[in-house]
């Protein structure tokens, strides 16, 4: 692993040097005038190779947060509910199967869902990561009920066993991005609850929930 990291670091340093040389030698009379574009005036301090290697080793190493995510590994049964704008329950689809596993060397939690939702075949996939550098949890979701991807970041409240994510999702009607809040609660070792709230016209409303029971 040390040799791999050192090799990667050398490649990064070499690429950086090559890019710098290309910028110095390249002149294009048709290049865009960037005098009106914002520039980053923050001074960049040079980083030695040892510091770079240590940073990448820390970034890629699974920690306590990843171990916590691994406790959800197993098979679950999910009930997915949707709510009307007034907060009343609109529909519930139960009996959906979910499998949770850790992937890529226990660095990411991946959950796959399969079943029927409102009489239609349903498949979905959720990934949860903990970014060692940003110190945040990251959640993504895709399913066969759309063609977009939701992305959210959040933190874990150890006392309440709750993750609170905030992100954006596509409104299929308007095509615009709408903010949402996701509350994921670890009720106990065998029960979990995810609740989603959308914000429309400045008002937050509950739109969906997923109850998970370990099998």
UniProtKB/TrEMBL annotation:
Matching Pfam families: DUF1579
PROSITE patterns for this protein: PROKAR_LIPOPROTEIN
Signal peptide: 1-19
Keyword Translocase: no
Coiled coil: none
DNA repair as UniProt keyword: no
UniProt keyword list: Signal
Amino acid composition bias (Low complexity), ranges on this chain: 28-44
Superkingdom to which the source organism belongs: Bacteria
Region (Disordered): 23-44
Name used for this protein in its record: DUF1579 domain-containing protein
